[in-house]
Amino acid sequence: MKLTQQQLEQFEQDGYLFFPSLFSEQEMKVLRDEVPAIYKEFRPEIIREKDGVTPRTSFAAHTYSDVFAKLGRHPRMVAPVQQYFGEPVYMHQFKINGKQAFDGDVWQWHQDYGTWYNDDGMPEPRAMNVAIFLDEVNEFNGPLYFIPGSHREGVVAAGHDLKTTSYPLWTLDNQKVRELVAKGGMVAPKGPAGSMMMFHGCLVHGSPSNMSPWDRVIVYLSLCTVSNHIRRAKRPPWIAHRNFMPVMTLDDDCLLRKDVRGLPWPGHEVDEDAIKRADAPIAWTAEVAQKADEQEAAAI
Ligand code: SIN
Ligand code: MN
Description:
By secondary structure, the protein is an alpha+beta fold. It contains eight helices and twelve strands.
């Protein structure tokens, strides 16, 4: 799968691309069938909603589930990002966002790169989300809202929200959102299971609660260019990965095959040298880290 010149231009303009029904229903069923087994486990990688029970975000399932390990190496998800950056990418974060029927809660307005920069010391916004709908996403079950063009603002001021969400998030204030929406408007990509979105690390986004009777499971790969690996090991390794090895893609039909050929089981490679390089001087400095810590302390 190769992005056309027109798609690349559209991405520059809007900060996202939407690919309805890129994966088949049969492929999505393979992934959906695996989700209950993941939710059943009370692992630290699974964040619950405020009720303490409903699964909200399951991190790093690609490190312990064969089918999600395949998804994390799927050429339809990884190749367009590699093409865009012109460089190999590693998996900075992998998450299954449940947003369950009736109980799935809001995600406040934010930019992912705000968190990747402040918390993880990622030098540049050379990282991207690619998301795939495991369920149909419609206007009722908590679709993602984007502000087109907001990625062109770079990193905008944000506060560290430790209360509203089930885990800390750097969120934007209402006035800033008002200004950005006045410029770019709002969109909510909707479509059948198997639809894919790719969006810039600085694109402002959020999502409302799911009051509908339909689950809305979306899986996100956050792929970062290898040279831009994180410099700060503040968040747990299942949230901000320390494995900076390039993602090696599998065959296009990997989800429909029973074998796990090409997966790095049982262990998985960690680039120890890259972790040692983590102290290298970069734009993200100790002062920035201190400021982030102070803001966090003030928010508590
Ligand atoms: C996110 O922005 O990280 C998640 C939003 C969502 O899945 O609704
Ligand atoms: Mn986000």
